[in-house]
Design brief:
This protein has 407 residues and is of the alpha/beta class. 37% of the residues lie in helices and 15% in strands. The chain is built from twelve helices and 13 strands. Strands 3-2-4-5-7-6 form a six-stranded parallel sheet, with helices on both faces. Strands 9-11-10-12-13 form a five-stranded mixed sheet. The chain is globular, with a radius of gyration of 22 Å.
């Protein structure tokens, strides 16, 4: 907690232990890029299994890796149907290649569960990483979070989508998914180092609830907010927390509640999904009448579909991936898709101004300042070909215009 760590490296260390404990009942089917996804710790205890390679065939390797998503999906399905457990890690942008195969498998398992003589089977587990938020040297072709929506369209008895905000939450989520039965589990996370917000115990409680108020980053622990800011996804949550820090400095009269959602399905109504919150629980997180701004990793329409049916939705605004950006810096991706801390802070000020006259009085001035920061930061990035250093500093989440000066 309070440090910075790669979720995938931590998950790789966990998966190594899973391989050790389950030498004949766990496999990883990886369509290439296993090491790029920072899971290589697994290779300390096992190897790839290439049948055409005399040095690796028939030696018990638990990682099956080849650049064919369709073949890996077929292996995943067949292996899982034997009652054993598997994991499918992939670049975010290429999971869509197996979309229809995943849907057909889900249809088969739905009918199987309705057949009395068939028993439960392990879930199929997708690990979605190398996302649009941290694309490294790749560009527009490697930005595609649409597999999230594909899973959301499944029957509620199967669909499970998770956005662990840090490494500890990811460990808790992975442990849960590998032990689960009959689901299609999708876990979305970053492979680059990111902030660790919660201790192991806090992460367990947070994941069990599916979402919670993060009082540390809220005003007065989140009591009586003027606006609710919601982060869904590791980098998107970091920007929400950074925006809350900006507001403490620039608009101290604004009362802000910060919420993180790790189980996406809690947003759906309880009558439509077994993980969905009833209205009482929903209001305890998001209030029943205050403006809510979501900073979301996927596409906005996904959240709109989940939230449909909740009362008073005209108070909701959503920022999300909007098909912007090419080969550029991580923070410029946030700016271009209007999910940056500055955009979140602007949304918060506009929301808070509806209730708080002190914020309303300074709204135009504050919004103008933040819009200027967006312009100045983008100019810096274009000029220097990198992000300002302070933007990724967990301990210094403040506007610091001096670092944007010429030279």
């Amino acid at each position: 907690k309070g440090s910075s760590e790669s979720c995938m490296q931590r998950v790789g260390a966990y998966l190594e232990k899973v391989v050790q404990a389950n030498p004949k009942s766990f496999r990883i089917f990886s369509p290439d890029e296993f090491e790029s996804n920072k899971l290589s710790k697994v290779f300390d205890s096992t190897n790839r299994n290439f049948q055409w390679d005399e040095f690796s065939n028939a030696r018990g390797g638990r990682v099956i890796e080849m650049l064919s998503e369709h073949t890996m999906q077929g292996f995943l399905q067949g292996y899982t149907l034997t009652g054993r457990t598997a994991l499918f890690p992939s670049y975010e942008s290429f999971l869509g290649i197996v979309h229809t195969m995943m849907v057909q498998y889900s249809k088969f398992t739905k009918m199987a569960r309705e057949t009395p003589w068939r028993g439960d089977i392990p879930s199929i587990n997708y690990l979605e990483t190398s996302t649009w938020t941290r694309q490294e040297h790749n560009g527009f072709s490697h930005q595609n979070p649409s597999f999230i929506g594909a899973v959301l369209n499944l029957k509620p008895t199967a669909a499970r989508v998770y956005f662990p905000p840090d490494a500890n939450c990811f460990l808790s989520t992975m442990d849960h998914c590998l032990k689960s039965k009959n689901y299609v589990n999708l876990m979305v996370g970053s492979k680059q180092p990111s902030a660790v917000f919660l201790s192991a115990d806090e992460a367990e409680n947070h994941c069990r609830a599916g979402g919670s108020v993060w009082s540390t980053y809220s005003t007065d622990g989140g009591l009586d907010p003027d606006v609710v800011l919601v982060g869904i996804g590791a980098e998107l949550t970091f920007e929400v927390i950074a925006a809350a820090a900006i507001l403490r400095e620039k608009a101290p009269s604004a009362r802000v509640r910060v919420v993180n959602v790790t189980d996406l399905m809690i947003l759906e109504t309880a009558s439509l999904h077994p993980h969905g919150l009833n209205d009482e629980a929903f209001d305890s997180l998001f209030t029943n009448d205050r403006p809510i701004h979501f900073n979301y990793h996927g596409y906005a329409n996904e959240l709109k579909g989940l939230l449909f049916g909740r009362p008073n939705l005209d108070r909701v605004t959503i920022a999300s991936y909007m098909e912007e950006g090419s080969t550029t810096t991580p923070f410029n991706m946030m700016l271009l898709n209007e999910t940056s801390r500055y955009h979140v802070a602007i949304a918060a000020i506009k929301g808070a101004a509806k209730r708080n006259q002190k914020v309303e009085l300074k709204m135009h001035e504050l919004v103008s300042e933040l819009e200027s920061e967006i312009k100045r930061t983008q100019e810096f990035i274009v000029r220097e070909k990198t992000d300002p250093a302070y933007l990724t500093d967990v301990g210094h989440l403040k506007i610091d215009s001096s670092s944007l000066s010429e030279g």
